[in-house]
Design goal:
The chain has three domains: 153 residues, no CATH class; 243 residues, 6 Propeller (Neuraminidase), CATH 2.120.10.30; 266 residues, TolB, C-terminal domain (Neuraminidase). The chain is 7% helix and 43% strand. The protein is built from four helices and 53 strands. A hairpin with a 3-residue loop joins strand 22 and strand 23. The longest helix is centred in the N-terminal third of the chain and has 24 residues. The radius of gyration is 32 Å and the shape is globular.
């Protein structure tokens, strides 16, 4: 919006504010003199608008506004200084009236006014020597504004990949993920299980030849929450994230391996992620400590120094990426996995500036130039991730990828002319695992025969299975009982959060749903009838469980960006905080005496904690689990937990005795059998696991010159 406000040129000249997409582009000078802090005015003495002030003085609005300009009539402006947002005091106006006996009327003539006395020399004024200067400044400013306005009006977003040339790089049977490009765009690195285990691979673009650089020597390389691969500035080494098995955050580091082959070796000990500036002079990196402290150094640091930024407790800061002009470091900030956005910060530190507003799974930001940002993000319904683009000065997100192409990693060359992406097609299936009475023997997994295309987030009730099926952007809840499948609930555009929770008697189901950016908690009978919304006032996240008495649901909800466990009552009472500290993913013991939950991620790990049904802290053996293993379940009796343990990508089920802390491995799935979720039947005799099989390939996009 373009507007001009030209006031009395004898005292001031205020020209124009140009606004576009909530950004002030230009404010001309000189501005009116700043006012002192407005005094407190009692409500009964206050006039809250020009209209009220004019009515009190028995004049029109134009006249009283001129009096304020020329006669210094006492009028105050609110702190936010919005145009026309003023107030005045009756007492102050009365004092001002008594100080004058006459004033200037609407036509400029001096006329008597009740209660107004003249001030010497307060008649009409002659020409001011400042008027030509002010008018000249105004005209120059108008010309500048018009130029800017025309540039803004002519701006049109252009899809940077509209005329790109696509090229499939890999066509392997399994995975090719976490892609990275050298700074000049000639070398491409990625992770793949082509040789039976995850390794770092490299190829020269266009050569068609692939080289395994790690040959099984690195035990754990996969971490989808960060940019795990990169190149040194000269392209002579590939850098990669590594975590030693059965190790804590102290053994997370960045290693490197020569692109021509050789022994891997430590590159930046204690770091979790890094990015070199385009000119290769500066390094941004973060460690896996709480808040992911971000550091900037000139070259490889000899000591960490002081971080320029550290996220608040419970939040994470990943994917640091330098802007081409080195003025900013872009990063992904928020609560993983799906409450994230892109922010930027100056290399010297300060307060981060928010760039995107997805509040979803946002990963892999890259910049093609100073203004063009590309990244991957999910939709509000949970679908994706898709490829997005944005002009960082306008901050309007544009989805660039058509159809259902799902991308899981993104890289760009320094000149912005080449992109590398991982195109993924995941497959999720449900499998049954029978346990012996003592859980000492485990049968081989057998796939469930489902009538739907997909099956995820399984939960076992008395003699039945619940799961979620996805078709495009829609999700639905299904029930399998005695070989018969039935759809219990669905709604167009609804995204089901986590897994459904089953009451102790198996008669009721609770589940959280996101619809049109709002979250709601539903309850319904186990046959799909009597569905109703229990609450829509919370920002819900994840799975819900039932309280021991069946009178409330325990679920995760965010308050000021921090997740807590809440009780949501079936009788309509207002939801109440159940656990006040950071707490997610509750699991309730069958006898109702204990609720276990997860604390915040620290690096790639998190701790399990517990409270009683009365929310009193309850001691449990120290148990640290790996990201991706947040769901836990109780065996019948409530004294043994079933947990997922292992690497970020591949895990097995373990039993943990809460009284002693003793642990025993329950399953031994093959390397390609990756578990995303699981549940155990109320009698403890059957397991159901959700297996995810990722097939992904690397594709290149060569972009036209911009």
């Amino acid at each position: 919006m373009l507007y001009f406000a030209v006031a009395d040129w004898e005292t001031e000249a205020t020209i124009c504010v140009l606004k576009s997409h909530n950004h002030h582009l230009l404010t001309a000078m000189p501005e009116p003199p700043s006012q002192a802090t407005p005094p407190f005015v009692k409500a009964e003495d206050r006039l809250d608008s020009w209209k009220e002030i004019a009515a009190y003085l028995n004049r029109d609005v134009t006249t009283v506004q001129r009096w304020e300009k020329r006669e210094r009539m006492p009028v105050h402006r609110h702190v936010h200084d919005r145009i026309g947002s003023v107030y005045a005091s009756r007492a102050e106006l009365d004092d001002w009236r008594r100080s004058r006996s006459r004033t200037v009327s609407e036509n400029g003539a001096d006329v008597p006014a009740p209660g107004l006395t003249p001030e010497p020399g307060s008649g009409s004024r002659g020409p001011s020597r400042w008027t030509p200067i002010a008018l000249t400044a105004a005209m120059a400013t108008v010309a500048i504004v018009l130029v800017v306005w025309l540039q803004e009006a002519a701006y049109v977003w252009r899809n940077p990949i509209a005329d790109a040339r696509f090229q499939r790089v890999t066509d392997f049977e399994g995975l090719a993920e976490a892609t990275a490009l050298s700074h000049d765009g000639r070398l491409l690195a990625f992770l793949s299980d082509r040789d039976g285990h995850i390794d770092v691979w490299v190829t020269q673009v266009g050569s068609g030849q692939f080289h395994n650089l790690t040959m099984g020597s690195a035990p754990e390389l996969v971490n989808p929450s960060i940019r795990s691969l990169g190149f040194t500035p000269d392209g002579s080494f590939v850098t990669f994230w590594i975590r030693r098995q059965n190790a804590g955050n102290g053994d997370i580091s960045i290693w490197s391996v020569p692109t021509l082959g050789g022994e891997p070796r430590p590159y930046l000990e204690g770091a979790a992620e890094l990015d070199w500036s385009n000119d290769g002079s500066r390094l941004a990196y973060h460690t896996p400590g709480p808040g992911d402290p971000l550091f900037v150094s000139n070259g490889i640091p000899t000591s960490p120094g002081q971080p320029i930024f550290k996220a608040e407790a419970g939040l994470h800061s990943h994917f640091p990426a330098w802007s081409p002009d080195n003025k900013y470091i872009y990063l992904v900030l928020g609560s993983p996995p799906d409450k994230l956005d892109i922010w930027r910060i100056k290399p010297t530190g300060g307060t981060p500036e928010r760039i995107t507003s997805h509040n979803g799974t946002v990963i892999y930001p890259v910049l093609l130039d100073r203004r063009t940002l590309l990244y991957l993000s999910t939709e509000p319904d949970g679908s994706g991730p898709w490829l997005y683009g944005m002009d960082v000065e306008r901050r309007i997100a544009h989805r660039l990828s058509p159809g259902l192409d799902r991308y899981t990693s993104l890289a760009a060359s320094d000149d912005g002319r080449r992109l590398a992406l991982t195109l993924a097609t995941p497959k999720r299936t449900l499998w049954r695992v029978h346990l012996s009475k003592s859980a000492a023997e485990v049968a081989a997994p057998v796939p469930f025969s489902l009538t739907t295309v997909t099956g995820s987030s399984p939960r076992l009730g008395p003699n039945y299975l619940l799961y979620i099926s996805s078709t495009g952007a829609n999700e639905s809840i299904w029930k399998v009982n005695a070989g018969t499948s039935k759809q219990l609930w669905d709604k167009d555009g609804a995204h089901i959060l986590g897994s459904p929770g089953i009451s102790a008697d198996g008669e009721w189901i609770a589940f959280s749903v996101r619809e049109d950016r709002k979250t709601m908690l539903y309850v319904m009978k186990a046959d799909g009838t009597q569905a109703r919304i229990l609450t829509g006032s919370l920002e819900l996240e994840g799975s819900a469980v039932w309280s021991s008495d069946g009178k409330a649901i325990i679920a995760t909800a965010f308050d000021r960006g921090v997740p807590h466990l809440y009780r949501i009552f079936l009788d309509g009472r207002a939801p109440a905080v159940f656990v006040s500290e950071y707490s997610v993913n509750p699991a309730a013991a069958p006898d109702g005496g204990l609720v276990v939950y997860s604390g915040p991620d620290i690096g790639a790990n998190f701790l399990l904690k517990a409270v009683t049904s009365q929310a009193a802290p309850h001691p449990v053996p120290p148990l640290t689990l790996t990201r991706g293993a947040r769901h836990v379940a109780f065996l019948a009796g409530g004294q043994t937990l079933v947990v997922l343990r292992g690497e970020i990508q591949h895990k097995d089920l373990w039993l943990v005795e809460l009284s002693t802390g003793a642990q025993r491995q329950l399953t031994n799935f093959p390397p390609d059998f990756n578990i995303l979720d699981f549940d155990i039947s109320p009698d403890g005799r059957d397991l159901v696991v959700e297996r995810v099989q990722e097939h992904s390939d690397v594709v290149l996009m060569d972009l036209p010159r911009r």
